[in-house]
Every structure is written in structure tokens, then in C-alpha cells.
Task: structure prediction
Amino acid sequence: MTVPTAKDHNNIGVDFYRRGELVEAIIRFRKAAFIEPGYVDAHSNLGAALNDMGRLDEAEEVLRATIALSVDHAAAHCNLGMVLQKLGRIDEAMEALTIAIDLDPSDATIMSAYIFVQDFTAGLTVEKTVASRRRYNEIFFPAP
Result:
């Protein structure tokens, strides 16, 4: 019998997360991070699950620690942006999401999160909204 690896626990956590079983997902993500403390995906997934459970302060703490482990982890920056948006810290959310886009400009989830949070930005100009949506379309629906 083989002992489950950090990746195994993370993958099982992702399955639970997708089914909406957040408590079980969190348990698996924590096990993965315990087994392999530098496993950034497990930490980022844990932050996302905590966010979905409404445990925003804890999610922010986990995601900031995740980014400290790997400053180039686009999903962690994106997840942090979504937490900050829920906390009403829109400028910080936009900053985190901008970093995520810079790290992975072809990720549709990140771009969608950016546009979603951008809609909450006070004083947002029509030009900025049109520019971001144009950028999204250019990346994901390039002209033939």
C-alpha cells in the first residue's frame, strides 16, 4: 500500500472543491501543505477554498504566505485579488489581479476575475473598461 503524496492530497482536494465539499477540500489541501510545505498549489487552493467558505481573513493570510513562497504564482495573486475584493479593498484587489495577468496573460480565469473586480472600481472610466475587454478579446478570440 502506497502512502498518499502531497500531490495526491491536493488532487483529491481539488475534486472535493469542484463538488462544493469545501470542508473536505480544506482538509486535503492542509494535508498536502503539511507533507510538502513548499507545495504552492496546495497553499493557493487552500486560500481559494477558505475564500469560498467566507473565511476571508484566514484566506488572505494563507494567500500572502503562498505568494511569499512563490512570487511568480499567478493563481495565488488571482485568488488574493478575489479575497481582497470581498473585503472591499478594491485597489489592492486590482493590484493583485494586475500582477496575476502580468504573470499569466493567457489565463481566462484571471482575466475574467480582473474584469469582474474592475466593475467594482469607483471612478472607472469607460475607456479603461473598453481597453480591458478589448485586451481580453484579443488574447482569447484573436482575429483570423
